[in-house]
Amino acid sequence: METTRFQFANNTPLSLSPNFILPEENRPILSEVFSSASIPSIDLNNHDIDDLVSKISQACEKFGFFQIINHGVPKELSQRVLAVVTEFFQLPPEERAQFLTTDHSKRVKVFNYYQKVEGQGKVLMWGETFTHPWHPTEDFTHFLPKNPPQYREIGALMDKLLSLMSQGLGLEKDCLKRKIGERPAIYTQANYYPPCPDPELTMGLQAHNDISALVVLLQMEGVSGLQVVIDGKWVAVEPVPDAFVVNIADQIEVLSNGRYKSVLHRAVSNKRLARLSLPMFYAPNNDTVIGPIEDLIDEVHPPMYRNYSYKEYMDEFYRQEGARRRVKEAFQLQH
Ligand code: OGA
Ligand code: NI
């Protein structure tokens, strides 16, 4: 059964078999997608900190998405990682099948996303995902080489973003990081979207909100696929050379009491080219209690979400598997 779910052989062209074809109402309408001019690219090497904080907080409030340039991670490193991961996806499928599982507790795994469609059962997304823990947490960062200094940059980058976002909310620099907790789960996903004979009939990754706290995504240059909702319209986030895409995920939306937005996004496939993306997720661990930060609650801004443990949140996430997940709604308070 698992091997039939595991569709992507490395032979091309791949055929779009019926179990990938979405019902009409769930398909992307690519002619109605806008270009990404509105999503800001922010220079992290801006020494005017107030200006940087204000650019980042505006982007978090308006779009929940932005790109960063001059982020300190060397281009060669990003390119090497993308090359290695591409190679992994081009191995014969049997090689990847050893990581194939539907067991949520497995930390290193390969899987396909799917949508449950009435009358049709599971419809697979046109993509394959590999996930595993990534940047070492504090516990073992100190075992890593000090040289070259960039070795620790991704973790440092997450910290920097959290600090700027905290300041943007008028909080202490370390506030968001402290709230997300001492032992964050930092893991990566590699999404591989093979060329698709007809991208209009299927989806690379269905519309979703990220459930973690913060996401930094590395995408291949030259192939577009990521799209986000802005003012009710789908907008493409075109790859910017040597940039990372940053997005607010649900836990920061909740902590910020709704000021920073965790926005709906999806990935579509491309007719001619394979596309690879590498989102790096920064999330609380299961025991951490998340809820709106008290300093952000007052009479005008009553709490928009109740407090919960991240474990509860994950349980709700898995409960909604296969559906268009609406996890944060389940924790919303009505006023
Ligand atoms: C994700 C995601 C988008 C992409 O993995 O959560 O949104 O471009 N990926 O692959
Ligand atoms: Ni996502």
Q: Gist?
A:
The chain has helices at residues 2-5, 49-62, 75-89, 93-97, 138-141, 153-168, 175-180, 250-255, 310-319; strands at 41-43, 65-69, 109-111, 114-117, 121-124, 128-133, 185-193, 205-208, 214-219, 226-230, 233-236, 244-248, 265-267, 275-283, 289-290, 308-309. It is an alpha+beta fold and 335 residues long.
Describe this structure in words.
The protein is built from 9 helices and 16 strands. It has helices spanning 2-5, 49-62, 75-89, 93-97, 138-141, 153-168, 175-180, 250-255, 310-319, and strands at 41-43, 65-69, 109-111, 114-117, 121-124, 128-133, 185-193, 205-208, 214-219, 226-230, 233-236, 244-248, 265-267, 275-283, 289-290, 308-309. The strands form 4 sheets. It has an 8-stranded mixed sheet with strand order 1-2-12-9-14-7-6-3. A 4-stranded antiparallel sheet has the order 8-13-10-11, with no helix packed on it. The relative contact order is 0.17. N-oxalylglycine binds next to strand 7, strand 13 and strand 14.
Q: What overall geometry do the principal axes of the alpha carbons give?
A: globular
User: How are the strands ordered across the major sheet?
Assistant: 1-2-12-9-14-7-6-3
Q: Element order, helices and strands?
A: HEHEHHEEEEHHHEEEEEEHEEEEH
Q: What is the share of helical residues?
A: 10-25%
**Largest sheet geometry:** 8 strands, mixed
| Total E-strand runs | 16
* Poorly predicted ranges: 1-6, 136-141
Report the mean per-residue pLDDT as an integer. 87
Radius of gyration: 20 Å
Count of DSSP-assigned helices: 9
Bound molecules: N-oxalylglycine, nickel (II) ion
Structural class: alpha+beta
